[in-house]
Amino acid sequence: MEFVFGKKKNPQAVQDLVSALRDFEVTGSLYIGYPIFDINDDALLTDALLVSEEFGVIAFDLSNAAVDDPKVAQAWAAAERVGLNLEQARQDMHAPGVNAVLETDMQDVMAVGVRGTPTFFVNGRALSEFGPEPLRQLVSSEVAKTSL
Predict the structure, then answer these.
(1) Which terminus has fewer CB within 10 Å in the chain: N or C?
(2) Where on the phi/psi map is residue 95: left (φ > 0), alpha (ψ -120 to 50), or beta?
(3) Is the peptide bond prior to 70 cis by the omega test (within 30 degrees of 0)?
(4) Tens of pLDDT along 20-30?
(5) H-type helices in 27-121, by residue range?
């Protein structure tokens, strides 16, 4: 994957996208902050444009929509009410150590096949059908294997 950097409107989102795409074996080029149309000295920039044989052309919107999401705002407010130092939390969430932990977690998630939450595992076996009865059956079958 070739990364071609232009103007970055959202550097953290760019970094996250580049990190995610490095983990996949995709051939092609990712153009970040490059004009797709240039008319009369007015350029229309894309946040990111992936061009590859496998996927064709994919445009990424890296706007920081989560900042304006009311649910995100409510979550931050709830965290502040229970004593979270918001200024420190916002600084910490961009620390390199946090990204390293998240990358490790994502590798683990992909390795074991987690597709959503909640995901249940019993003795390393994933619950194939969600619900209390399938979970009860899986637990019972695993307990039966260990019983004398």
Answers:
(1) C
(2) beta
(3) no
(4) 888 777 788 88
(5) 65-68, 70-81, 86-92, 96-112
